[in-house]
Amino acid sequence: MTLDVVLKKSKPALLAEGEPGPVELITGDAPLVITGDHAGNLVPRGMDGLGLAPADLARHIGWDIGAAGVARLLAAEMNATAVLARYSRLIIDPNRPLGDPDCIPPVSDGTPIPVNADLTAEYVAARADTFYWPYHRAVDHQIARLRALGRDPAVLCLHSFTPALSTREQARPWHIGVMFSYDDRLGRALIQGLRAEPGLVVGENEPYSGFIHGYAQKLHGLAQVLPHAQIEVRQDLIGDETGQRKWAEILARVLAPLI
Question: Is 136 domain-assigned?
Answer without folding.
Answer: yes
